[in-house]
Amino acid sequence: MVERNFERLPLLSGVLRTTAAAARNARGRAAAKAIAAVRRGKRRLRLARYLVSGEACVDDDYALSILASLEPRHDHVCPLCGFAGRFLPFGLPPRPEARCPCCGALERHRLLAYVDRSHGILREAKALLHFAPEPLIATTLRQSCLLYVSADIADPTADIQLDIENMDVPDGTFDTVLCSHVLEHVDDRRALAEIRRVLMPGGRLVAMVPLAEGCRRTYEDPQVRDPGTRELHFGQKDHVRRYGADFRDRVRDAGFALREFTGEGADAIRFGFTFGEKVFVCEKT
Ligand SMILES: [Zn+2]
After folding, report:
1. Pairing mode, strands 278-284 and 256-262
2. Distance from the alpha carbon of residue 164 to the mean position of ligand 1, in angstroms
3. What CA–CA distance (Å, rounded) separates 56 from 83?
């Protein structure tokens, strides 16, 4: 009955048809949005599954909770570039709030920069040899040190190509050697002996390594050689050991006296350090 009345009122009937078409279009747009959201969601799920396991064998809720856990929530300050705000996730498996979005500094870069700023362990160097140079740190040190040399066994962008276990460098050339996350890749006894040799009397090695502080002894096994098994045993395909608390003994046995600086307390929150991470300052004795 109502429709019939509307048919007698062409204007109103036209308005209603237009409204109905608009509603169909709106439903169409809503449906398209919903489909796009589902597609985005599926892409996110695939990403999350990959992040977790490399294959689709985790349930969707778990995968989504992983993504949610990576959402930056807190403000930090970067000691390298001064950025203040939210840091981004980084790494596989991903670490939330790990990377400065401004300069790219990670937790260990920020800790090293902070310790250097507080104690001048690097910027006071007159002749510094930097192994496996992190570009961020290298840029700063190149400006602050009288003589700065970057070195890597393979990287052609380093100033010199150098084998840390067998350096073609005269005795007593440098007053400071920096190697962050290098010693766990190499024969560290040979490397430490070489570092000591190229240091001047009283010179120092500034070192960072991944360290399982709760393990009294370093775990290594020369039979573990292939990359996949090394990843299983040592946490990375090109690592040759997992350091325990006796890392300090290895350094002392090589002829160094140790000081150590730890990422901890309110500063670790403010600057986004990994709690318990260490910078070792090892003075040649
Ligand atoms: Zn930064």
Report:
1. antiparallel
2. 29
3. 37
| H helix or E strand, kind and range, residue 185 | none
Q: Please tell me the distance from the alpha carbon of residue 124 to that of residue 145, in angstroms, as a whole number.
A: 7
* DSSP H or E run through 251: helix 247-253
Domain 106-284 coded CATH 3.40.630.30: no
Distance from the CA of 146 to the center of ligand 1, in angstroms? 24
Angle, in degrees to the nearest 10, between helices 135-144 and 107-119: 20
Question: Would you kindly state where each structural domain of the chain is located, as residue ranges?
Answer: 2-69, 106-284
Question: How close is the Cα of 84 to the center of ligand 1, in Å?
Answer: 8
Question: Can you tell me the distance from the alpha carbon of 176 to that of 7, in angstroms, rounded to the nearest whole number?
Answer: 93
Residue 22 CB-density burial (10 A; 0-12 exposed, 13-18 middle, 19+ buried): exposed
Q: Which residue has the higher pLDDT, 52 or 157?
A: 157
Measured in Å, residue 103 CA sits from the centre of ligand 1 at 4
**What is the tens place of the pLDDT at every residue in 52-88?**
665 555 667 777 788 888 888 899 999 999 999 999 9
Q: How far is the CA of 80 from the centre of ligand 1 (A)?
A: 5
Q: Whole-model pTM?
A: 0.79
Q: Calculate how far, in angstroms, residue 107's C-alpha sits from the geometric centre of ligand 1.
A: 10
Q: Report how far ligand 1's centroid is from the alpha carbon of 233 (Å).
A: 33
Residues paired with 282 in a beta bridge: 205, 258
How far, in Å, is the centroid of ligand 1 from the Cα of 117? 14
Written as six digits, the tokens of 204 are 């120092």
Closest Cα to residue 54, out of 63, 42, 65, 64? Answer: 63
* Ligand 1: centre distance to CA 77 (Å): 8
Q: Which two tokens stand for residue 32?
A: 């398209």
Residue the block writes with tokens 């050991």:
241
